[in-house]
Design brief:
Layout: H1 2-21, E1 24-33, E2 38-44, E3 50-55, E4 60-65, E5 68-70, E6 82-89, E7 95-101, E8 105-112, E9 121-129, H2 134-139, E10 149-155, H3 172-188, E11 193-197, H4 207-216, E12 221-228, E13 239-243, H5 250-261, H6 275-304, E14 316-318, E15 330-337, H7 341-347, H8 350-370, H9 377-383, E16 390-393, H10 400-407, H11 411-418, E17 430-433
Parallel strand pairs: 1-5, 10-11, 10-12, 12-15, 13-14
Antiparallel strand pairs: 1-2, 2-9, 3-4, 4-7, 6-7, 8-9, 13-15, 16-17
Helix pairs in contact: 3-8, 6-8
Length: about 425
């Protein structure tokens, strides 16, 4: 058995090397500026190895493609932190791409395989300003101030995988990208918080690649954003899921099967893990991660009550493959039912996307201030008593006395802080919680 595995592994290595040796053509170049970075995307006709080098004395980023050629035209103008671009063809077929920068920077890169026969392979380079530039200064903290918590935001589906499709033709991949971009902007404005996106455009990512990107950046939380569909178009409302090896309901299992099946587009079934590896992950880390996921999920769900209808009033469990990062608290948010005509119309509007993004932010912020990771700016703020004003969204069955007991504040203080005429509550009512 061991010898067989060795032979199979050797064949795989040789095959990979042979494929990697074939030259790749860079057929398109895209450059875009975001709140915290400039992203360069190189589109190739085939997969190829690359390396990344950042120079500080003469600010530039160098990308070497082991065997390639440039067929695309270089951009005539710079974008964001990238001042200009040039290239050179070296002996042995190596293609060197050089990005001259306006200021010193850091950079990271990753490769994305083609999602289908008509799609290209991509090398994605993210360039982050360093030093005294405005964008960097707003987010950078000295060591004594503590680091920012990092939230990984994962807009579901993308590229050839549209996700659910509404009756009027709305694609899930489009609306959840809009919500995710808004959430990222809001998080980046929060002191002590930073955001990353697994995708910021319309392209396909394998399910495992999504949470691996979060793990590469040491994210503190992973939030996957979706918009569900069901045959009964009357069904509507939000729900929040965390990982479970067995779904807690038939609907949870149905959702998980649909989300996991999406990865077949990329040709890989990520739910087929070796039993020994799955057992080790579960035993060592996943139980603790699921516990934290339930807590942040409850906070997010609470604030979704203030946006619209919530279909599942408690956090659900399902075996979503995208939630299987063993060491990062992870939630999947079904923001609404795109199959419901009313919610489909709402999901397409900027106002409703903004409401959803703000509800997600408030829940995430509440979680981190209740559970500040050690060494973060938020932990230091909590220690110093600098805690943002707390809010609570009333749910069905809530009473004012129960809320007061939960937050350890007197009922009269709750009434005064919210100028309530009496102790009656309505579902979705947002209450300011006074300092205890």
């Amino acid at each position: 058995m061991t010898a067989c595995r060795f032979v199979v592994g050797l064949c795989a290595i040789l095959l990979t090397s042979a494929l990697g040796a074939a030259p790749a053509r860079v057929e398109a170049i895209r450059v875009a500026e975001y709140d915290s970075k400039t992203r360069v995307v190189l589109e190739l006709d085939r997969s190829q190895n690359h390396s990344l080098l950042v120079l500080e004395n003469q600010p530039r980023v160098v990308v070497d493609i082991s065997s390639g050629s440039l067929r695309a035209s270089l951009p005539a103008r710079g974008t964001g932190i990238v001042r200009s671009m040039r290239h050179a063809q070296h002996q042995g077929g190596e293609l060197r791409m050089v990005f001259d920068l306006h200021v010193p920077a850091t950079a990271s890169s990753f490769a994305i395989g083609a999602g289908g026969a008509n799609e290209r392979h991509r090398i994605v380079i993210d360039v982050f300003p360093r030093g005294g530039e405005p964008n960097a200064a707003e987010r950078a903290h000295s060591a004594q101030d503590g680091r920012d918590v990092l939230v990984a935001i994962d807009p579901g589906h993308g590229g050839k995988d549209p996700g659910a499709i509404g009756r009027n033709g709305s694609h899930e991949k489009t609306v959840v990208l809009g919500i995710s971009l808004r959430l990222a902007r809001l998080i980046r404005k929060e002191p002590g918080m930073q955001a990353m996106l697994t995708r910021d455009g319309d392209y396909y990512l394998k399910l495992r690649s999504r949470y691996e990107l979060a793990r590469q950046r040491n994210a503190d939380l992973f939030v996957s954003v979706h918009a569900d569909a069901i045959r009964d178009r009357r069904i509507r409302g939000s729900s929040v899921y965390v990982l479970s090896e067995k779904g807690s309901s038939d609907e949870a299992r149905r959702l998980a099967q649909r989300e996991n099946a999406a990865d077949l587009i990329g040709g890989v079934q990520l739910h087929e893990y070796p039993p020994t590896v799955a057992t080790m992950i579960i035993d060592l880390q996943q139980n603790a991660s699921i516990g934290a996921s339930l807590e942040v999920g409850d906070q997010v769900l609470q604030h979704l009550h203030g946006v619209g209808r919530v279909r599942k009033s408690s956090v659900q469990k399902a075996p979503f493959a995208v939630l299987k990062a063993p060491d990062i608290p992870s939630i999947l948010v079904e923001t609404a039912y795109i199959s419901n005509p009313q919610e489909e119309r709402l999901l397409k509007t900027a106002a409703y996307q903004d409401k959803l993004a703000r509800a997600l932010l408030t829940g995430i912020r509440s979680y981190f201030y209740a559970n500040p990771p050690r060494g973060t700016l938020i932990a230091k703020r909590v220690e110093a008593g600098e805690v943002p004003r707390q809010q609570y969204v009333a749910r069905r069955g809530d009473t004012l006395s129960g809320i007061a007991q939960r937050f350890k504040v007197p009922v009269p203080a709750l009434i005064r802080a919210n100028k309530l005429p009496d102790d009656r509550l309505r579902v979705g009512q947002i209450l300011d919680i006074p300092a205890s």
